[in-house]
Amino acid sequence: MLKIALTKGRVERKFIPLLEKCGINCQPLVNKQRRLIVKLADKYEFIFIKGPDAVTYLNKGVVDLGIVGSDVLMENQSESYELLDLKTGKCQFILASTANYDWNNPKRKVIGTKYPTVAQKYFLSKGEDVEIIKIEGSVELTPLVGLVDAIVDITETGTTLRENHLIVHDYLDKVSIRLVANPVSLKQKKKEVFAFSDMLAKVVNQ
Q: Engineered SS bond to 97: which of 63, 65, 150, 180, CB 3.0-4.6 Å?
């Protein structure tokens, strides 16, 4: 049986329809209520966890596969092997600020983000030294109240940015949901892992 870490929330909602298209009865997943572990088709054991924890479970070999956003993989520098881009849950990293912010101001920029690793990598590639503040809540709020000069965040439609009068200054990496494997399982359960990956690939590439 394959143990699969499934990120709760948005990723979960985007992934289940793909699994249904594969002909698998997903009612146990849809109706899981507060259960954190759900078995399907006597083949799969889905473990519901938060994104960063999915990376930890994979790196420690607790699960064979993970269904997780590439934003989480990039931020947590996952050691997992990417098998498939599921081409759903698409969004993009952006750099944004208020319309009146002067990007040419020589003062050291202060950046708010939930993704300090991604933000640091971006500014290093630009040769800029910035101060990064980790934000757990509404990142869009931080430039509005003067806590930071700009933000690095992900956006799907841009609605929240527009409603808060924030302007995109640059586009960073695109984000989508990925199927990843822990390297040990890729060797020990190669047949099962690739059967699952190939099944999803058929519906993703339709």
A: 150
